[in-house]
Amino acid sequence: MPFREFLDILHPILEIYDDCDYESAAILARKELGLTRERSLRILLQAFVYYFEGHSRWESSYDYGMARGLLRKAIDVIQESIEFCSETEKHGLMCLNSLSGVLEAAINLENALISVDPHKMVEIADNLSAIANEGLEYISKMEVAEGSLVEWFQTQLSAWQLYGNGVAAYSKAMSAVRTTEFERIFQESEIKIKKCLEGILEAEDEDSYSELASYLEFLKYHREIISKHPDYLILKGNRLTWLYSFYGEPEYLNSIYDSLTEDNDEFVDQMKTHGISIQTIDEDSLSDLFETVLGVDKMKDLVITLNPLIIDFRGIDVELQMSVRIYRYGVATIHLETDVDELTVSDLRVYLSLSGPHCAEFDIQWEGRFYTRLSTIAEEIVTSISKVFSNLDMGLSLRFVPHLNWYSYVLIQRGVWSRGNHEDSLLPLERAVRFPDYKGLLLGQMEARAALDDWIMRDPMGIRNLAPIRSHTTDLLITTENHGILFFPDDPRWIVLQYQETIETSVRLRCLISTFIEIAGEILDTFIEGTSDLARDLETMELELAEKRISETRGQLLPVIHFDTSAHMNIELIRGTLTSNYRDHAELMKNIMDDLNVDRMVNYLERRLGILSHHQTLFSDIASGVVERRTRERERREAEMENRRTKSMEFVEIFISILAIGEVISILFDALRNLEIQFSAAIEPITYFVAMAIVFLFIMYVRRTSRVVYE
User: Fold this and answer.
1) Region 113-131 average pLDDT
2) Coil, strand, or helix at residue 193?
3) Nearest alpha-carbon partner for 6 in 44, 53, 34
4) What's 672's DSSP letter?
5) pLDDT band at 508 (very low <50, low <70, confident <90, very high)
6) Best exposed site among 15, 120, 356, 470 by fewest CB in 10 Å?
7) In degrees, to the nearest 5, what angle opens at C-alpha 418 toward C-alphas 413 and 421?
8) Whole-angstrom Cα distance, residue 346 to residue 174?
9) Average pLDDT, stretch 366-383?
10) In the chain, how many domains are there?
């Protein structure tokens, strides 16, 4: 089949792709692949399948590795098969090869955007344009007929080339923000971006057009802000902390705790086999603020210090100290920490995002292995601990939900400063709040980014400074669902430590509730389905089968009851935070947990427990109904047996009565013979049978009369 005719088969697939339904395009392409025997077309379709699947994966997930892997498969298919194709087919396949390379560059570009690295964006965008240009060079060697596959390739690659040029211009301007070159570069970049937008509009690429137009608008916003506010905030002496919390049954975690405090050599050796080195294992304790909240025993924690990891943050190696901390009330935390001397608000926001599910990929080294996200390391640690204690016959079951139970915060230790046209100047909080970038300290992490530092145009809604609850109006304590800002310029270290402990304890308590919500959901899915099916089928179900189902469900009910009890105990533990001997601390902790949405989560858990309780009651009613059915069945059988016994006795009584009557009649006729009274020989048997009939009828009448009276 000539290459120019391939579009006849690909046309409906490409239409779906152009409508941004990448998954459906991949499905249809795979279907056509199964029907096609033409070798060149099969190569093209197979490469398209991987290309569409890679695009679909990118659009639906932050798992860039999977998307890149699929795109590289498309490139591999082309490279391995191209020698079997004609010259025209080779040029066409190389166009798809360029498209796959362009899409991989676009993924890397998004990653650089999320990591707020405009210098990297310039480099990637230039590379993207160069790859697109390579594809266009192949097109120049081919006939571009209207409506052909070659024309489709040309349209796609031209739009991508313009997009890359526009993003490079935007990124170059953003990398020059707050430099003397910014205004000149802005003017040049604005012209380039507008020109690229015109070309993209002609290509009818709405996605690329909207993204580039958004970048241009935000570039203008930043220029306006800089012109009005040339100074910006610098945070000095920053201690950054990232937390991943996970849940384990308290009895299991207590077993681990006790085991490791007594003898931890085997644990250390086993963890080493999983590629994790243990530096030290020590016991620590919270301050007495938490004694009435948690109890004396639950204030202690076991600190397992691991080897540090190295993260490449924009070309600088940053070392993060790491430990696992086990608490006796059912929660453990992976704790990461580092110190960074100076940060802009933008830098801080990127650092705080590192533990989140929507963070950028970074090059991370730990234990001689390479990673791209902290969450992957955290999952590896939790899995290894679980396996090690399973090998030690401790039956440990850990639950870790990294996309829910993550948190990060910064302690600013040497003040908030201004930087710009003058020397750095230390700012009191009342002046710092007037800076445009101050809002970046208040705003929580975002999943969607319209442009670099697009938070500058957001408005913090309902975010409060909690520091004055226990401290001073000159201090700053901001907590949101997943981040915290601590700045206490006039408080001693021991007070600041209490604030850190309070935030971290609140985060761990939230982990308890979020885990129980997840478990409740799993129980509801299975237990409710079981009880609902049982209730629906009970009337038509045989009694023996119903009893078997009740017995099976009753066996499932024991862990449900255990869960219900544990859930209510943890709810009481959280509400017990309000019983602290230190009223200001209780008020602070309540407000922090409100910011963490703990109260809302508790209410949600209670609603789930209410549903669970309803279905427990339903099951009890069902079980009672089955017991009643069994009772009625037993009573029915007993009545039948009694009826049979009664009838048997009646038969015996009648038989005996008849025999007795026979004897009486026999005696009577013997007496008549002795008196020599003459009678016919037939009289005796007739009399005998008549008497028996009379007796039988009389007995039956008496029995029936007795039953009627009894009933």
Assistant:
1) 97
2) helix
3) 44
4) H
5) very high
6) 15
7) 150
8) 13
9) 96
10) 4
Q: Which of 487, 516, 536 is the last residue of a domain?
A: 487
Written as one letter, the residue type at 269 is D
- The model's pLDDT over 638-694, given as tens digits with 9 standing for 90+, comes to 677 767 776 667 666 666 766 777 677 777 777 766 776 666 667 767 777 777 777
Distance CA 370, CA 276 (A): 14
Task: For residue 232, count CB atoms less than 10 angstroms from its CB and return exposed for 0-12, middle for 13-18, buried for 19 or more.
Answer: buried
213-219 mean pLDDT: 97
In a domain, 198, yes or no: yes
Q: Does one domain contain both 32 and 79? A: yes
* Pair 243, 385 in one domain: yes
Domain range for 84: 3-228
406 belongs to a structural domain = yes
Same domain, 236 and 293: yes
Enumerate the β-bridge partners of residue 426.
Answer: 417
* DSSP secondary structure letter of residue 472: -
> Cβ–Cβ contacts within 10 Å for residue 514, how many?
22
| Whether residues 628 and 659 fall in one domain | no
One domain, residues 221 and 240: no
Regarding whether 249 and 131 lie in a shared domain, the answer is no
Average pLDDT, the chain: 87
Three-class DSSP category at 569: helix
Model's pTM, two decimal places? 0.85
Of 615 and 209, more confident? 209
Residue 24 · residue 16 · CB < 8 Å: yes
Q: Identify whether 632 is part of a domain.
A: yes
Neighbours of 277 (CB within 10 A): 11
Q: What is the pLDDT of residue 709?
A: 46
**Which 8-state DSSP code applies to residue 525?**
I
| Cα angle 415-419-421, degrees, rounded to a multiple of 5 | 155
The predicted-structure confidence for 401-413, as pLDDT tens digits, reads as follows: 888 899 999 999 9
In-domain check, residue 591: yes
Tokens 């003040």, residue located: 415
Ranges of H-type helices in 278-325:
291-294
**pLDDT for position 378:** 97
Report the DSSP pairing between strands 483-487 and 406-412.
parallel
Other residues' Cβ atoms within 10 Å of the Cβ of residue 515: 23
328-374 pLDDT, tens digit each: 988 999 999 999 999 999 999 999 999 999 899 999 999 999 999 99
Tokens of 350: 């990127």
Helices (H), 392-492: 429-432, 439-442
Asked if 116 and 219 sit in the same domain, the reply is: yes
- Identify the domain boundary among 228, 252, 272: 228
Sequence-distant (6+) residues with CB within 8 A of 59 are: 20, 22
- DSSP for 12-35 reads HHHHHHHTT-HHHHHHHHHHHHHH
- Which CATH number characterizes residue 51's domain? 1.25.40.280
Q: What is the 3-state secondary structure (H, E, C) of 657-668?
A: HHHHHHHHHHHH
Tokens encoding 115: 């990591």
